[in-house]
Amino acid sequence: MARKPGASTKPKAISLHIGLNGVSAAAYSGWDGPLAACEFDANDMAAIAGKQGMKSQVLLTKKATRAAVLAGMRSAAKALKAGDLFFISYSGHGGQVPDTNGDEADGQDETWCLYDGQLIDDELYLELSRFGAGVRILVLSDSCHSGTVTRAAPPPPPPGQRPKLMPPAVAMRVYRDHQAFYDGLQAGVAKAAAAHKVAVDPDAALAQVGAAHAATTLVGRFNPAVVLISGCQDNQTSMDGDHNGAFTEQLLKTWAQGTFKGDYRSFHARIRAAMPPTQSPNLYLLGKTAAFVAQVPFSV
Fold it and tell me: What's phi and psi for 213, nearest 5 deg?
């Protein structure tokens, strides 16, 4: 990931942190999805980024709109070059909409529930694919994404706990009320991908970022290197808390104010080992990540 001769030897780093303690009921058919700790999660991730020298943007609840998130990602994609780092974190509800382009084995596309509408996983992968070759991308997602690989329904949450999952009945209602919008988003991704589709990188074809193996086929080669640590397995739910989400809380304990010195694999393993069996964070890699995943987490 070396820079070209004459270029600055110091990598550039940009981060974007998204935390929603609720969503607009107008965009979600009357459901406002109350949560408690997601804004804390976003601010805590931004604090880590700041200490590492990253230029950060934080989008909380009402400011975490589809337009704002997409603008932040696209601005970073234009600004970053080989060897640079983009760190994006999300804390909020995960949802689903019916898959209309045939890239999901279970017939469902996973989503991030942003304030004024959902961001579909196909859109996320397309935006990531627009980053330049050699850019490192770290994604931390403290949300529920059930059904990506398995079709088993998540177990009910323990009494008194709040899962970061849009209820299936709400998800169906939201899709019904806004079907043209979400179907149009998926059609737009397919059209954009077809316009610049290239041969699939063999390394990327073996990767699993949720449904990224299918997304890779959809958008073509992933030139950046992506490391994604998600809050739970596909058939589990991520839990909210009073001060941090369960995943983010354990991540912060493991990071221990920067005293952690292992690589991304050991970071993930230590977080997972400390979590209950009902919530097991997962590690996904996309693109040529061998050098990236061997670094100390959050290294610029």
Answer: -60, -40
What confidence tens digit (pLDDT) does each residue in 166-212 have? 888 899 899 999 999 988 888 888 777 776 654 333 333 333 334 44
Say if residues 13 and 84 touch (Cβ distance below 8 Å). Answer: yes
Helix (H, G, I), strand (E, B) or coil at 97: strand
Q: How far is CA 171 from the centre of its chain?
A: 19
CA distances from 251 to 267, 273, 292, 297 (A): 8, 11, 19, 11
Q: What radius of gyration, in Å, describes the C-alpha atoms of the chain?
A: 18
pTM, two decimal places:
0.86
Structure tokens at 133: 């070759």
Residue 280 DSSP class: -
3-state secondary structure of 150: coil
Q: Which CATH architecture has domain 13-293?
A: 3-Layer(aba) Sandwich (3.40)
